[in-house]
Amino acid sequence: MSGRVEPMTTTHTRRTKSLFAVAIFALVAALIHFAIVAWQRTRLKTAGPVRVTAQPQQIWIEAGNAAQSLNFDFLVANKGNTPLAIDRIEVIAYDAADKPVLRRFIDSNGFAPSIDTVPGRTIAAGAQVLVFNPFHTFGPDIELHRLTYKFSLSIPQEEPEASATVTVEPRVYRSKTALSLPVRGKMLIHDGHDFYAHHRRLNTEHPVAKELGLGQNFMRYSLDINPTDEQFEPFANTGAKNQDWYAWGKELYATGDGIVLGAVAAEPDNIIGGENFFKSEDIKASPMKFYGNYVLIDHGNGEYSLLGHVQKGSLFVKVGDRVTRGQKVAKIGSSGSSNNPHVHYELRTGTELKAEGLPATFQGFLRHLGAKVVAVEAGSVDTGDMLESR
Ligand SMILES: [Zn+2]
């Protein structure tokens, strides 16, 4: 009997065991499935955190006649595990009493959304991008004691998920040095430091900038100045030769009193349509190669004037000389990173690549506005200005 029963019992036990195994398997499979779904969900929904910082640390207001200009940028870091796109940037300016003065934004609204003016605004997980500050110019009557910029970001094609704010406290900068323009006669500020100027658009996150160690923008307030003819044209004929340019060989003057810290004139001038001697890889070993030949003046108050692209062999001063404002120092050439004869001028905080640019206030020049000529006692100058200095 036991011989008959035993196999039955065994069969029954086996069936129970296999049913049990199937149930466990189904349960485990279901748990794994839900765990994956939940993990994917949390993974997709974990937007950010995001961190925004302003660059440089010290932010200046350049007080012009018609507007106040801010010249700083943002580093936006996506610290999360999924790509994020910047959808909206809003600024609120506050006065010294902490009351809001002005609010502005750019966002994704409309057929050609204003946020599209910010290039490369999708940030990969763990990456950082540089955003050129889209709110940089304010009326002269707006008190800019404190500004808060709010960035809203989302996972592309999903709802807004992350935001980050940064607050800055800019202050008006007035040059400590009594400065004059470095050339005489009529001149065009070919490219300065307005929002579109190439000096301003140094993307420190660009791979080449990283490779060259350009962590700050020492050119932030630079000016490319072209001496011109009476009609403010920078060259005669076609401009195909260095000699066609009114800048070529024009005398350069010390912008302010100080001591000559650097005076170099051994670099060859580039030839329009011919050889260009500037090699960007040279900057890595010797950053000043960017300017070619140059004169660097220490004004003795934390301000330094740099005159770049000086003509080969044209120095009137040497290192250690004490110079006074308006003293002849060199001639304009086209050395270093230059495509045509002009002078690159910058006021800066130091001599190294770590230096930042400073807004320059020049004294005693004429501003030509078509038929109108305005005498300026002291003021800033920027891209497109047609000026005259005597
Ligand atoms: Zn320049």
Task: Compute the number of strand runs.
Answer: 25
Helix share, percent: 10-25%
Average pLDDT figure: 91
**Biggest sheet statistics:** 11 strands, antiparallel
CATH class value of the largest domain: Mainly Beta
Number of domains: 2
**Termini separation:** 128 Å
Task: Specify the structural class.
Answer: alpha+beta
Kindly list the characteristics that best describe this protein.
single chain, 390 residues, alpha+beta, Immunoglobulin-like, Glucose Permease (Domain IIA), 2 domains, 11-stranded antiparallel β-sheet, 5-stranded antiparallel β-sheet, disordered N terminus, binds zinc ion
3D architecture notes:
- The protein is an alpha+beta fold and 390 residues long.
- The protein folds into 2 domains: 50-172, Immunoglobulin-like (Sandwich); 185-389, Distorted Sandwich (Glucose Permease (Domain IIA)).
- It is 14% helix and 35% strand.
- The protein has helices at 2-45, 207-212, 282-285, and strands at residues 50-55, 60-63, 68-70, 73-78, 84-94, 100-106, 122-123, 128-132, 137-138, 146-154, 160-168, 171-172, 185-191, 223-227, 251-253, 258-264, 293-298, 304-310, 322-323, 328-331, 343-348, 357-358, 362-369, 372-379, 386-389.
- The strands form 5 sheets. Strands 13, 14, 16, 17, 18, 19, 21, 22, 23, 24 and 25 form an 11-stranded antiparallel β-sheet that branches. Strands 5, 6, 7, 10 and 11 form a 5-stranded antiparallel β-sheet that branches.
- The longest helix has 44 residues, at 2-45.
- The model is unreliable at 1-10 (pLDDT under 50).
- The structure holds zinc ion.
- Residues 199, 222, 224, 344 line the site of zinc ion.
